Each structure stands twice: as structure tokens, then as C-alpha cells.
């Protein structure tokens, strides 16, 4: 008898649940229709220039600043060219983006890739004058072609260095010093000191034509010691031109402490200052 009395109540609850499920389905269908309508509706373009300049600058830096030095390279069409499409968006974006691209990246003066090392016109010579005026960092990489220096490695009017008025740093990276070891005997061109004198003449000509450079950064591969003939000659030339000397990150020379000095300080009981 109890089961017969509970039956109507169970049926009512079942109907209520069914009605609730039907309502939920109806709401879900309505939401989906609203979502589809909102997707079909045209969206207003993002107003990039409404952002503060500081935020726009961060966007430019994320897209246009590269970790390696820019040079003539077969991979440029994949690694660099896509980011430069930003220049074509508008005149205003071109002006802002070009200042970041040319002002924040380092540009190599003479090419080192095998395909372009003998090119008559290096990357720097191919840049329009207005862009050369924005460049702040230059790099001179020495060692490639030491057996026969490329004919295009000449500091002349083709480079258009008179337009470079904002460059403050010249990075010099030495890959090989042919005068540092007899192992290069038979591979060198001319006398043992020929390549050293050749590189020093390049540096002298560059510093003469780019007076805005006040810092010379020196670095090298592990095979080149700090007291190698080429590195010492470059250092002397930079000092002669009263340039500030800095050491690059490859070797960490700026962090090296002379062992004799450490020994003396330890004997004096001051060795702990280096720990």
C-alpha cells in the first residue's frame, strides 16, 4: 500500500527533472546561437597606436631585436625578413620600428659567410643612408679569409660610413690569429705579421671614419689567447685612439683575476675578498 501512495510523488519529481533538463538544453542551444552570432559579427581592428609608446616599444623589441649580429646570410629570408613586414604597415609604424631594428641590433661590416665573403658590396654598403644613420652597434670579425683577405674588405666610400653618426660601439671578434703559432706556416700570406698589420689598418681606418665610436669591445675564440700578437696589436691601436676598452662575453676575460695577484692577497690574508 505504501508503494502505491509514493508513486504519484515519484512521477511528479520525474516530470520536474525532465522539465529542468529541457530548460537546460534550451539555454545551451540559445547560448550556442549567441556565440555563433558574435563570431559572425565583424570585429573592430585593434588600435595599436592607442597603446603607450613604452608598450609599443616592447612589442617592437620582441619582434625586431635578434641575438646574433646581422650580416649577409642565406637564412635571412627565414629568420629576419618576416619580421620586417612590419615596416609596410604604415609610415608611423615604419618610423618607430626602423629605429628599434637598426638602433638595437649589431651589424657586421664585412661578410663572413662562404657565399658572400667575396661579395663586392657587403650588407652595410647595401643599406640606405637613412638607415645607416640609425645604427649604434658595429662588428668586425677577423680570421675568415686570413690566407687571402677578400678584395671587398676595404674601408672606402662604398660603406657610406660618413652617415654613421650614432654608432658608439665597435665589436671586434678574433676567430684566428695566424701569427700566434707556427702551425699556420705555409697558410699565411706574405710575412708572419702581414695579417696582423692588415687587421690593424682596418681598425685604424674604421675609427678614423666613425668618430662617434667611443668603445671597442674585444673577444675571441678559445684558441686565441689574450696576449696573442693580433689581439695585442688591436688593443694598442684602440688605446692609441683613446677608445674605452671592453671585453666580450665569449671568453669572460673581464671576470678573470690574475693568479699571481690572488696568491699575494692570500698570503696577506685578504684572499676571501675574491670568494
Automatic annotation (TrEMBL):
The lineage of its organism: Eukaryota, Fungi, Dikarya, Ascomycota, Pezizomycotina. It comes from the Eukaryota. This is Uncharacterized protein.
